[in-house]
Design a protein that fits this description.
60s Ribosomal Protein L30, Chain: A; 2 domains; 11% strand; alpha+beta
Amino acid sequence: MKKRIWIMAALLLLVLPTMLLLTSCAKKGVATETQVDQAAMDAERARQEELARQKALEEERLQQEQLANQGMNAARTRFMNENIYFEFDKSRLLPAAQETLRDKADWLRANPDLTAIIEGHTDERGTTEYNLALGERRAESAKAFLVDLGISASRLTTISYGEERPIDPRSNEEAWAKNRRAQFVLE
């Protein structure tokens, strides 16, 4: 019987440390799984934050591109809508017209792939033939000034409409002044 007690004591001494070891390993396993789950959640959170940052950068880039396009469209519209005006029966450029043409030359230099048509217009006074010739001289005067500013003549075309396309159809000095112009169209 003493022998049995000794065997039981030895088994107990062997089983108890093994149970303690397995129990402590199990706890470490649970702790490790929790750490792995936390690391996975942290990695997913970091990935989501990076995706959000990239999306914000792309949206900002698109907004800047859109603003640039709006600015380009506004400059393009201004180029075409800003006419130069002449005195009665003259094709000489006034100082205000020269300043406008300098701005147009700057814009054309910044947009070297664009070409322009310069339309010469007159008021209704004078014969059709005379007004067509005057409109041509006005358009050529504007073209020559732009060429002198460094714009290639091959990028500029002139045409005269004479009195055919008035901005203001009335027959008074105010309307005639508006109609004596060179107008610009981009191709």
